[in-house]
Amino acid sequence: MSLPLVCVTLTGCTVDEMLKDAARATAVGADIVEVRLDKLWVVEQKPEPVEPTNSDSVDSRRTTYVAPIFASQSIDSVDLDSSLISFRTGIELPVILTCRPERQGGYYPGTEKQRIEILSKAIKSGVSWIDLETDIDTKERNKLVKLAGKNTKIIASNHYDESPNSPTDIVEEISEYSNSGDIIKIVFNTNGKKDALRLFDVAWRTKDSEDKLSIMGLGAGGDWTRIHAPLLNQDIVYTTMENGWHLAQQGKINTSDLKTAWELLEYN
Questions:
Q1: Domain extents for the chain?
Q2: What residue ranges in 73-205 does DSSP mark as E strands?
Q3: Is residue 50 over pLDDT 90?
Q4: What's the average model confidence in pLDDT over 164-173?
């Protein structure tokens, strides 16, 4: 049983924060890191944690997690050229450059035309991987694919702002994206066991596919396909260097915790 690539999505909203996270990812043995360029255009505002009110409850002994707020910044607040140079020279591991639009849960505040220009610059920077959403205008996406050529591999991604529907329908959608990239990444919102099982079913049905896949959820149960990715023959698993019990409710998993889980499950 071969293990998938372990990709750490870098946290932080500045180049320096991402570079520090990349160093930590390198230290724990990650295979690749994802740089979310769209997060350079936001400032993270961390709210105060909510203290528990009922000391008799086990769950209430934990401080309630409150998600941070990301405030958009002006387009000209980021020196993209300088940032790309810093990522190229300051990160040892292969890099996936992503600039996620708001329509797919990202933070980039500009127009689609401006975002396409950013993706074009990202490819020209010589990056190992580029993330290109499947819903980019076909003509523009084909130009980016041509620009990527053989030197930059493509993650063909789709982040659905909804829970997974029929596994059969999702499998059919995946087959439609077959020629869209080197790895097809599908992400749904999950809200518990029912959604998690649907995504697990999709991953199980496609585990012998010729396509290279990464199927996951965001929300409770979204980490099931990540934890069992070797069994499901997934090709890349996205993790984080963050820690905290709240990660499970977000469908995320810490990189070291994932590797420990694989050892315990004898996925090696």
A1: 5-48+61-264
A2: 95-98, 129-133, 153-159, 183-191
A3: no
A4: 95
